[in-house]
Each structure stands twice: as C-alpha cells, then as structure tokens.
C-alpha cells in the first residue's frame, strides 16, 4: 500500500528575478519562500530544493538506521544526522554531492557493527535510493562512547 505526501510551489516571474512559495501540503506545517538567489547564492531567510532534500535525506537516513540497528538487536539512544547537499551551477545546475554526518549513541554495539549498519542504512534509505543519480553520496558515521 502506497502512502502519498504532497507539496506545492507557486512561482512568479522568471528564474533569476522571480520568487515562489513552497507549501508542505500533507502536513500543513508551513509555507516557505524560495528564490534562485537562495538556491545558488545566499539563503537569507528562504529555502531551496536542496535544503528540502537535505531535510528529507537526514530524516529518512535516521529512520532507516534506527530500524537496521533494531533488526540487529540494538536500540539507539540517539541518532543525530545532518545532510549537506551541494548545488553546482558551474556544470549545468546539478546536485553534485551529498554528505551525511551521523553521530549516534548505541549501547553495546562494536564500532565494526555500527559502521556496517550505518552503511546499510545509507544504501537502503528510500531517499538515498531516489537520489542514486547524484555523483557522490558520502557518509561519516561516529559512534559516541
């Protein structure tokens, strides 16, 4: 059974001087201003598709990692994931790299098992799979002691 989530963007004007608003329709959590300048230069209280991708990827990764750990018999006390998404206009406007940074506290797990589970979460997260065309997705996972 599929679950559908939706967002909507209304854009006015041309790409470089226009602006838009992206609304999170399913949750109703908010409407966010978007502009080309916020995407390619300086955010200044606006968001971008790449920031929204970073939010989606960090949330999805954390959820996938917690599930993989649970299936291996471990429960994380905490998983903190941040994602950085690079938007490169020098090569024809593309997402060129995503970096995931994870700090987690998982009692009773070896670093080897932690790293194996962290990598499996990177590969298995549905958002990672959706972003498979990105040239580089890296992972830096740290187990807190």
Written overview of the protein:
- The protein has 145 residues and is α+β, with helices and mostly antiparallel strands.
- The chain has two domains: 7-40, no CATH class; 49-143, K homology (KH) domain (GMP Synthetase, Chain A, domain 3).
- It has helices at 36-40, 49-71, 111-124, 126-130; strands at residues 7-12, 19-24, 30-35, 78-88, 94-105, 137-143.
- The strands form two sheets. It has a three-stranded antiparallel beta sheet. A three-stranded mixed beta sheet has the order 4-5-6, with helices on one face.
- α2 (49-71) crosses α3 (111-124).
- The radius of gyration is 17 Å and the shape is elongated.
- The chain starts with 6 loop residues before the first strand and ends with a strand.
- The model has no long low-confidence stretch (mean pLDDT 96).
Structural class based on helices, strands and sheet pairing: alpha+beta
Shape: elongated
The main β sheet shows up as: 3 strands, antiparallel
Give the beta-strand count. 6
In the CATH hierarchy, the architecture of the largest domain is 2-Layer Sandwich
Helix count from the secondary structure assignment: 4
Give the CATH H-level superfamily of the largest domain. K homology (KH) domain
Query: In terms of per-residue confidence, which ranges show pLDDT below 50 for 5 or more consecutive residues?
Result: none
Portion of residues in helices?
A: 25-40%
